[in-house]
Amino acid sequence: MTETHATNPPGAPVFPPGRYGRRREPGRRRPLVPVVLAVLLLAALGLGAVRLYTQYGDPAYDAQVITYTDITDSQVVIDFRVTVPAGGSAVCLLRARSSDSAEVGHEEVTVTARPGERQVTARHRLATSERPFIGEVLRCRAPA
Q: Where is this region: Disordered (predicted)?
């Protein structure tokens, strides 16, 4: 003899009692614990990444071109300012381009700040293969 529940819709299978364990009530399950654990894990990973970046990440090496002067057929003089860590140094890549935007010269220059200072103002004469139109600082980085 099978047991029939009043909550079973007509045509639904009826299982013998005790044979398959307790049946769950139909309804929406909310996975609250896994979601909270995932959010906590992401927050911990983000906090760890920020802490490691502030501890070991590269400091900002910001460069600005002040002027480019003395333009001839074979050179340009570039005056630039670099922000470095206090008393530190930087290696900057300078580039000269012609009026048609072709690169006509480039060179890496090392600049060093005085002890306790964060900015370095430098002047460099960049040799070119033809007449330059502009002199620029592409990037600065920590010395190797």
A: 1-26
Residue 60 corresponds to which tokens in the numbers above?
A: 């900002």
Specify whether the CB–CB gap between 93 and 138 falls below 8 A: yes
Question: What's the sign of the alpha-carbon dihedral 91, 85, 52, 47?
Answer: negative
List the Cα angle 45/140/52 in 5-degree steps: 15
Nearest-angstrom CA–CA distance, 88 and 143: 9
Distance CA 63, CA 109 (A): 12
**C-alpha–C-alpha distance, residues 118 and 60, integer Å:** 11
State how far the Cα of 79 lies from the Cα of 35, in Å rounded to an integer: 55
> Which residue shows structure tokens 């003395």?
70
Retrieve residue 54's tokens: 């502030």
Q: What is the pLDDT of residues 29-60, one digit of tens each?
A: 678 888 899 999 999 999 999 988 877 776 67
Sheet hosting strand 62-69, strand order edge to edge = 62-69, 75-83, 119-127
User: What's the rounded Cα separation, in Å, for the pair 102 and 105?
Assistant: 9
